[in-house]
Structure formats: C-alpha cells, structure tokens
Amino acid sequence: MEQAITRREMMQASAILLGGVCGCRVASDAGVVRSACCNSPDLEAESLTIHEDHLAIDLTKAASLEDVGNAAWITDEGKGLKLIIVRVGRDEYRVLSRLCTHGGQTVSYNPKRLLLQCNNFNHSNFALDGQVVKGPAEMPLKAYPVTRVEDTLVVAI
Ligand code: FES
User: pTM here?
Assistant: First the structure.
C-alpha cells in the first residue's frame, strides 16, 4: 500500500540522512511533536511537599517509585520544575531535569541501559549524573542533590 509523505517529512528525512541537521530539532522548531512518548507516571501528589529550597518526597506514599528501575515525573509550574526522579538502586535515587538540553524534548529512564535517553528519535543519552553519553546534546542535564532521611527524600532545588 502506498503512503503519501509530506514535503516536511521528506526534508527531515533528507537532513538526517545527510547528517547535517538533526531531525528532532527541525521537528521541534516546526512545533511538531515527535516524541516516542514517555511512559513515566506523575509522582503521587500526596507524596510531594514543595518548599522554598527543597522538595520532600514521602516514600511511603510514592507507589510509582516502589521498585528499582521505576521513574516518575515531578512538575511544578510555579517553580518551573520539570524533573524526573529515578530509583536506580534499593536506596539510591536520582533527580534530574527531564528536558533534553538539545531541543527540550522529554527524556526517559532506560533501566536496562542505566541511562536517560531523549524520546525524540532516541538521540541524546545522558548518564545518571546528567553528563552527556551520546549527542547531539552537548550540555548535561541539571542534576539535583538528593538525601534520604528515614522514609523521606530531600531534593535541593
Ligand atoms: S531534543 Fe534533540 S536529541 Fe533530545
């Protein structure tokens, strides 16, 4: 069965093949959402308390972080926070910006590869400390210090 391709799709594909322009940035500039969709849930609101300079997360109420390998979104429009929290070990959590530094698309946690990857064509990859593992992103994701006090995570913001 034949499928029509738009001029924009043709140009994006050509740019990627030629290696000159990143397709996701072109797509982003055009306002076209190309995300592969992040399946991370929102962190349970009842587990989160937002303070002036830190977040407090009650792990007894954070079902989305129950298992190692889980990740959840933390969003606060007032503070402009768009974060992802990842449970990378039994007692190890990481909190980072979830916006790819290349074109601002959402990143997801890949527990098999132990890294964060941009949803946009899976281009950029980031280590759990936010450093770029694979571009086109050049700048790291912002990472936020996390400490655990009994059943509460304290995230400095
Ligand atoms: S937005 Fe381009 S690699 Fe993430």
Answer: 0.78
- In CATH, the architecture of 35-156 is 3-layer Sandwich (2.102)
Pocket of ligand 1 (CB under 6 A): 22, 24-25, 100, 102-103, 105, 118, 120, 123-124, 136-137
Measure the CA angle with vertex 36, ends 35 and 38; round to 5°: 90
Best of 124, 134, 138 to mutate for ligand 1, by most ligand atoms within 8 A of CB?
124
Return all residues near 149 (Cβ < 8 A) that are at least 6 apart. none
Sketch the domain layout of the chain as residue ranges. 1-34, 35-156
pLDDT for 74-117, tens place per residue? 999 999 999 999 999 999 999 999 999 999 999 999 988 999 99
